[in-house]
């Protein structure tokens, strides 16, 4: 009975979501939105990515945040060794990915 209720609920959600979408068959090619804004020039994209990467500089992190990263990194011996040679930011990003804050 629970499966039937869940199936009916999912069907109702799908019907509600599809009711708000425009009918793609009735749109003529002349009325379709252009894709001019989808692509970005390479140099502009590179600038945006560079600015995004620069946003996680060590100067932006507080002492408490750095200590939190250090505690996470100390749990992994390889990360701890890299932390001693390359710094906490480089070690954390190498083993755990981008800094979450």
Automatic annotation (TrEMBL):
The keyword Protein transport does not apply. GO terms for cellular component: extracellular region. It is found in: Secreted. Keywords: Biomineralization, Calcium, Disulfide bond, Gamma-carboxyglutamic acid, Metal-binding, Secreted. It comes from the Eukaryota. One of its GO terms (biological process) is regulation of cellular response to insulin stimulus. It holds the Pfam family BGLAP_C. The keyword Chloroplast does not apply. This is Bone Gla protein. The lineage of its organism: Eukaryota, Metazoa, Chordata, Craniata, Vertebrata.
């Amino acid at each position: 009975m629970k499966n039937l209720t869940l199936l009916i609920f999912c069907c109702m959600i799908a019907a509600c979501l599809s009711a708000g979408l425009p009918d793609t068959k009735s749109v003529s090619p002349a009325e379709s939105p252009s894709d001019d804004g989808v692509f970005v020039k390479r140099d502009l994209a590179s600038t945006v990515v560079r600015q995004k990467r620069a946003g996680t500089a060590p100067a932006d992190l507080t002492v408490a945040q750095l200590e939190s990263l250090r505690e996470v990194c100390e749990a992994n011996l390889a990360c701890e060794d890299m932390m001693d040679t390359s710094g906490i930011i480089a070690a954390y990003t190498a083993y755990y990915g981008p800094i979450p804050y």
